[in-house]
């Protein structure tokens, strides 16, 4: 059974936080095993955030490791829908929207 490391994103994933997110992702890559990224605190995300997620996924795939994203917020789901990348990431997205 392979070891997984969980990384909780502390806030937004926009161009303004890009360096901070890159640093977090770099440190996660240096760890062993697969990585789980918790997106529960991401209230704002832009194309830069998506690019960083894609870059991390590609980098880990080259190392025969995996990354999964969980606790997708509405902001993340909305941007995934706009760019039609849900299938690329392949993570289950649990819709927690209440009716009405």
Fill in the keyword field for this structure.
alpha/beta, Transcription Regulator spoIIAA, three-stranded parallel sheet
Query: What's the domain count?
Result: 1
The coarse overall form would be: globular
Tell me the major beta sheet: 3 strands, parallel
CATH architectural grouping: 2-Layer Sandwich
Mean pLDDT across all amino acids: 91
- Unreliably modeled segments: none
Tell me the total number of β-strands: 3
The level-1 CATH class: Alpha Beta
Our Rg estimate from Cα atoms comes to 13 Å
For the biggest β-sheet, the strand order reads 1-2-3
Amino-to-carboxy terminus distance: 43 Å
Work out the oligomeric state of the chains in this entry. Answer: single chain
As for the CATH topology, it is Transcription Regulator spoIIAA
Secondary-structure-based class equals alpha/beta
Query: β content, as a range?
Result: 5-15%
At the fourth CATH level, what is the homologous superfamily?
A: STAS domain
Helix content: 40-55%
What's the number of helices? Answer: 4
The sequence of SSEs as H and E is: EHEHEHH
How would you characterize this protein structure?
The chain has 100 residues and is an alpha/beta fold. It has one domain (4-89): STAS domain (Transcription Regulator spoIIAA). It is 43% helix and 14% strand. The protein has helices spanning 18-30, 47-62, 74-83, 86-89; strands spanning 4-8, 34-38, 67-70. The protein has a 3-stranded parallel sheet with strand order 1-2-3. Strand 1, helix 1 (18-30) and strand 2 (34-38) form a beta-alpha-beta unit. Helix 1 runs parallel beside helix 2 (47-62). The protein starts with a strand and ends in an 11-residue tail after the last helix. The mean pLDDT is 91.
């Amino acid at each position: 059974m392979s070891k997984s490391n969980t990384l909780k994103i502390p806030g937004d994933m926009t161009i303004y936080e890009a360096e901070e997110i890159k640093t977090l992702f770099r440190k996660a890559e240096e760890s062993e095993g697969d990585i789980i990224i918790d997106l529960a605190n991401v209230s704002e995300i832009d194309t830069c955030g998506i690019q960083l997620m894609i870059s991390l996924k590609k980098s880990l795939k080259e190392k025969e490791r995996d990354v999964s994203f969980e606790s997708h917020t509405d902001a993340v789901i909305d941007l995934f829908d706009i760019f039609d990348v849900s299938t690329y990431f392949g993570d289950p997205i649990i819709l927690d929207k209440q009716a009405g």
